Amino acid sequence: MSQTQTDTKPPAAEVQPAVFVRMAAVVRMTGLGRSTIYRLMAEDKFPSPVRLAKRAVAWRRIDLEQWSAGRPTVSH
Q1: What is the pLDDT of residues 39-75, one digit of tens each?
Q2: CA 23, CA 21: separation in Å to the nearest integer?
Q3: Rounded-to-integer distance, Cα 58 and Cα 62, Å
């Protein structure tokens, strides 16, 4: 009898679906205002959003977390 090789797929727990965050939540998460977010995007200093529909955009949570982790911290 021959042994068949099975596909090695990662367990479902390891596969992370993309989590999208809309503008209101981005403002709460970052503490930045809408205009500041758009200005930073224009300066390539903030993650770009993903178009969800014709008039709807959102940001990937992982992109926001990476951006936040790379920001300098203020020590008093």
Answers
A1: 999 999 999 999 999 999 999 999 999 999 998 877 7
A2: 7
A3: 12
Other Cβ atoms closer than 10 A to 26: 19
Give the CA count within 13 Å in the CB-facing half-sphere of 42: 6
Please state the pTM of the whole predicted model. 0.72
CB 30 within 8 A of CB 22: no
SS3 string of the chain? CCCCCCCCCCCHHHCCCCCEECHHHHHHHHCCCHHHHHHHHHCCCCCCCEEEECCEEEEEHHHHHHHHHCCCCCCC
CB distance 29 to 69 below 8 Å? no
